[in-house]
Amino acid sequence: MRNSPNEILHVEDLTVEFPTDDGVVHAVRGVSYTLHEGEVLGIVGESGSGKSVTSLAVMGLLPRGARVRGKIVYRGEDVLKLSARRRRALRGGKIGMIFQDPMTALNPVHTIGDQLAEAVLAHGLVPYKQALARAKEMLDLVGIPQAEARLRSYPHEFSGGMRQRAMIAMAVINSPDVIIADEPTTALDVTVQAQILEKLLEVKDAVNAAIVLITHDLGVVAGTAHRVLVMYAGKPVEIGDTDTVFYRPRMPYTAGLLGSMPSLETSGGRLRPIGGAPPSLINLPSGCPFSPRCPLADDTCTAEEPGLAEAGEGGHLAACHHWREVAAAPDPTALFRTESEAV
Amino acid sequence: MTISAPASGAAQGMTVVARTQGQMVRRRFFRHRAALVGMLAFGGVVLLAFTSIGIGPIPGWWDKSYLTTGSLVNQGRPTLSVVPQFLGGEGIRFGEHPFGQDNIGIDYFALTMRGAQQSITVAFIVAIVATTVGTLAGAFAGYFRKLTESVIMRLTDVMITIPILIIAAIVGRTFGDSGIVILAVCIGLVTWPTLGRLVRGEFLSLREKEFVEAARAVGSSAGRIIFRHVLPNTIGVIIVSATLAVANAVLLESALSFLGVGVQPPDVSLGQLIDTYRSAMTTRPWLFWWPGVFIIAIALSINFIGDGLRDAFDPRQTRVRA
Ligand SMILES: Nc1ncnc2c1ncn2[C@@H]1O[C@H](COP(=O)(O)OP(=O)(O)O)[C@@H](O)[C@H]1O
Ligand code: SF4
Ligand SMILES: [Mg+2]
């Protein structure tokens, strides 16, 4: 399964550390995933769980000083071993990235057309006119009306939704195989989030790419991702098909996230947020990093950190000593009963 | 909806700035009264200096040359009069030698105009060279950090600690005879560090912006990021500094010439005229004052323009002041 022919991107045991004045930040601690052609892989987790750092590592955009280990294999080549020039050709060429906040990710002093054309020009000697024509095509593709005129607009003349459409256009303008979308709807108005997500999926199909969809909101991956990777404190803690993870979570943290989702029926209509906060990535607790917040935590948990292990069919993996107990619970989200309920 | 004209956007505050940056800058600049006066005054001086005695072989409207002597009229006193007769003056007239004549009978208006031409030319060359070098050095230091930054910044440290006048004087002494262009280029090459540091500061903060990361994410090379993505965002700082660099260069050139290491005779510059005639202060004061007035007019008006540009480019100023 590892080397299936339609595998595009394979990340193996990726670790990222940032040496800082306060100590080493262990931002990513052994993330592995495989992305297949046309697939949508969701990466979910609370803020600070290492989702962005993981994708910046794949893009080669980490700040200097970051220590990266592991393997990032794009179509059989370990990109960490590529020359700077080859690496740059991948960025924006074969792997496109969509940022969270299109307002800050677009350059305020250039027109949308110029910025899109720039993405084309960065990858080869093309006449500017041709690059601009390509930019117009892309604006059409992402559903921006009057694309021709809009090429001459500045980012601030666009609404939030239009800006994110332009960002999507920029990410796919060179027809990449992989799109990394880091919280593509988080900064947007709720009313346009669904539209943008839909457009993203449509565009992905149009250019024939796979997506790594990063979000802290399970609702975003629910209807879109084929598979989901749940991250906690820099580690993958559960991975599996979206439906499996949603309906048969095997890791208390996943169950907790599901319970804090407003719309899911399994939560019995009740919101049960996970109490406490994620651990410091400089001084991680011993054993399972989730243990301070986990209702099932016991001595085994604080003694030893659980590794990802098979917890169901179809490559469903979970990192929990007590995943069987989670599996046995009729409603795993109820593990996180609020105090009033518990009485 | 989103199709907002600049006018309707003005009500939304902050977004306006980034908006049509060029338009906003222009509007703010033209409402800056001192800057407008400065621009008119400077434009007037440039026009006067270059049209009156002409440039090189192209003749101007003033019939006397700064190189030919003539017989002394009225002991070389200025014939310019600006007080109308009904106020008890001699009426408004230019006369034969409006600014008077020097001791060998050269028309002093022509001399002053030549001096102004040379001072302005030197100032612009200095500013262009200093701005170009400073911008490049600041951009590379700010973007690449590490070794590039250390080398460039140590260099500016050294150059900034040595008084500019001393460096410039050495340059002037060495290159003063080789003509004003070489002199000006050399002065430019030693005066860039101030601007270089400013530009570096801008780059340091801009390089952390997400749009720079986004530019890297689309595969732009370092060169494209520096020149196409970051530099245009620093254009305000650069234009303002370049303007003030012109004003400083006018004064620096005057100081150098005053010290006798700037523009060499038979050519003249404003500073050199002052230097030559400072001893005539008591007997024929106009020989000292005319070039002085022009230096002050040029330096002040450019400073006003610079002030206006600084206000116009100030991102905190979202509204046009009335
Ligand atoms: N350049 C950096 N230096 C130090 N720590 C960093 C740096 N970038 C990110 N981190 C830390 O790494 C952790 C993971 O961050 P991130 O991947 O952005 O989380 P998220 O899952 O919200 O995207 C956070 O604790 C963050 O503070
Ligand atoms: S290993 Fe223990 S502490 Fe960690 S999630 Fe499982 S039950 Fe909770
Ligand atoms: Mg993030």
From TrEMBL, chain A:
A single MF term (Gene Ontology): ATP binding
CDD domains: ABC_NikE_OppD_transporters
Annotated Gene3D superfamilies: P-loop containing nucleotide triphosphate hydrolases
Span of domain ABC transporter: 9-258
Topology with respect to the bilayer: Peripheral membrane protein
Keyword ATP-binding recorded: yes
Cellular location(s): Cell membrane
GO BP field: peptide transport
Keywords assigned by UniProt, alphabetized: ATP-binding, Cell membrane, Membrane, Nucleotide-binding, Transport
Entry GO terms, CC: plasma membrane
PANTHER family according to UniProt: DIPEPTIDE TRANSPORT ATP-BINDING PROTEIN DPPD, OLIGOPEPTIDE TRANSPORT ATP-BINDING PROTEIN APPD
Protein name from the UniProt record: ABC transporter ATP-binding protein
Organism: Nonomuraea terrae
TrEMBL record, chain B:
Chain ranges of the ABC transmembrane type-1 domain: 116-306
Keyword match Transmembrane helix: yes
Keyword Transmembrane helix: yes
Keyword vocabulary terms for this entry: Cell membrane, Membrane, Transmembrane, Transmembrane helix, Transport
Subcellular location as annotated: Cell membrane
One of the protein's GO biological processes: transmembrane transport
GO cellular component annotations of the record: plasma membrane
PROSITE patterns assigned: ABC_TM1 (PS50928)
CDD domains: TM_PBP2
Pfam annotation, one family: OppC_N
Main location: membrane
InterPro entries: BP-dependent_transpt_permease, MetI-like, MetI-like_sf, OppC_N
Membrane topology of this protein: Multi-pass membrane protein
Transmembrane segments: 34-58, 120-144, 151-172, 178-199, 230-251, 287-306
Family under the similarity heading: Belongs to the binding-protein-dependent transport system permease family.
Name assigned to this protein: ABC transporter permease
Protein species of origin: Nonomuraea terrae
